[in-house]
Write a structure and sequence with these properties.
The chain has about 300 residues and is α/β, with parallel strands linked by helices. It has 12 helices and 9 strands. A hairpin with a 5-residue loop joins strand 2 and strand 3. The longest helix has 18 residues.
Length: about 300
């Protein structure tokens, strides 16, 4: 089994785990949690706005050792004898076509040893830095290539996407989420029909974590209900998605979008986990004739 590892998540999870945050009250009292420092200020009539936050990281060698242990443990859990780790680099396509992509995140909020972990993953574990796309897409490419080679059979599958990111469930094959089941982990199989349906469901609900809009008031559960009566034909699901959109929201970063279809196509481009480098959702599903000639920003 070849483990396809989300190095971005590993970097942040192991990095932040090695960062010890200390909250210092105005009188010098130190606390591990902010709520404790706030309560201390209330008890002693101190101004909670004067609480200082400081990060005291573990020694870098301790942090990198934790990364090593974490990766080895993951490989053991899924009985993998090989691994490929992927990191997201610069020049991301999604930001180019939709500048507000992930704009809700604080890009400055990174682990203290962020750069050192990246360097360690690349130099010691051979991690690939993906430029232009994201680590997610690279994992999807490799998993789809394995499916194409082995006809998508569980018994013959030789790759497993390892991440806690639910978006990758839009890719058929084995998956491992180490935080599932209360941290015990979960190795599971996603077949192609389920993977496709997840894509169209998310096309209705959007992705708040990545700042990708959906239909107002439609969450994951409602999206499932909307598509419940539709079969597995991608064209029928696509039609349902288009019909459910009542009109394009006002999006300052996409002023060229003049129709519901154009706007929805843009959202599909943002959500799609590429199964082949450069491939769009409409190409994969054979729906290219449904794109408008004046496609929005693409």
């Amino acid at each position: 089994m070849l483990a396809l590892v989300d190095g971005d998540v590993v970097t942040y999870q192991c990095g932040f785990a090695s960062d010890q945050t200390i909250y210092t009250a105005p009188d010098g009292a130190e606390f591990q949690y902010k709520k404790e420092a706030v309560q201390h200020c209330l008890d002693h009539k101190l101004d909670e706005n004067d609480i200082a936050k400081n990060v005291e990281p573990e020694p870098v060698e301790h942090c990198l050792h934790s990364v090593k242990i974490f990766i080895n443990s993951m490989l053991h859990e899924i009985d993998a004898d090989e691994k490929k780790i992927f990191l997201t680099g610069g020049g991301q396509r999604r930001v180019d076509i939709f500048p507000e992509y992930k704009a809700n995140r604080d890009e400055t909020h990174k682990p203290y040893w962020y750069s050192e972990i990246h360097q360690y993953l690349q130099e010691t574990h051979g991690a690939d830095m993906i430029i232009g796309e994201e680590a997610d897409d690279a994992m999807a490419w490799h998993q789809w290539a394995d499916k194409a080679t082995r006809d998508g059979d569980q018994l013959g599958a030789e790759t497993c996407i390892c991440t806690i990111d639910k978006d990758l469930n839009m890719v058929p094959g084995f998956h491992y989420n180490w935080k599932a089941n209360g941290g015990k982990g979960d190795l599971f199989w996603v077949d192609e029909t389920v993977a496709n349906r997840l894509f169209f469901e998310q096309w209705l609900s959007g992705d708040t974590a990545d700042n990708i809009p959906g239909i107002p008031g439609v969450g994951p559960i409602k999206a499932q209900k909307i598509l419940a009566g539709v079969g597995d034909d991608p064209f029928l699901m696509y039609e349902k998605v288009i019909n459910e959109w009542s009109g394009p929201p006002v999006v300052a970063s996409a002023p060229a979008c003049q129709s519901v279809e154009e706007y929805v196509h843009l959202i599909g481009d943002l959500l799609w986990m590429q199964r082949v480098p450069g491939e769009t959702w409409d190409q994969h599903f054979g729906l290219t004739d449904l794109r408008n000639d004046n496609e929005c920003l693409f």
